[in-house]
Structure prediction request, 230 residues.
Amino acid sequence: MVPTLFHTYNPAYYHAYIKNARFRTEHGCVEYRVIFTPELSNRYREMVKRVSDAGVRLRTWDLNHLEEENDLFTRLFNETFRSHWGFMPLSSAVMSELTVGFRDVLVRDFLIFAEVDGRPVGFVYSVPDLNQAFHRMGEKPVDENVAEFQRYVGEIDHGVLLIIGVDQGYRGRGINLGMAARSYLAMVERGYRSASYTVVMDDNWPSRKTAEKLGARVTRNFNIYRRELK
Prediction:
């Protein structure tokens, strides 16, 4: 299985090499994958309805004002992840690599903001799994074969929900499920067969439970290693 966008995946024996180099395992992460079914689509619609009935507005990003949406994305990211292990605040300029830099391949309906009484309280950043297209290109330079690459992009059938976050004061209301479900439904409507939910720290059980409620299962494990320098 080809690694999904933004992720690498190494053979299992690399672990022994790294351990023999006197690194230790600092933290584990998992990648989830869901195979879409009609039953799951019905579940997703119920999740969206539940939060909408509770007064939560789920809206797609405005790609015509992507710079402003990127600023909101950056602010929410820094606010919702500040207590996570390994967190480092990121600037709008850095985050724009995921938004403005991806303008040509972003799918509006995959990108969700949640609002309560007009206040943004959550976000989902999902993209097509461009690795499918890159893999099919082989060694051909994309800039010299744009039409072929665009054709492959149009044939992508896997999505990547890369980042999801909800403001701490609004957690526990199902907003996470509603946003993810809305994004996944858009993928289903686009003809996608599956999606990833990545990458989740081993001990981030709220996010892992979200993935499981969405029908996803662990398909890959990642390790973060550490070595003290003397």
The chain has a mean pLDDT of 94. Residues 38-53 form the longest helix (16 residues). The chain has eight helices and seven strands.
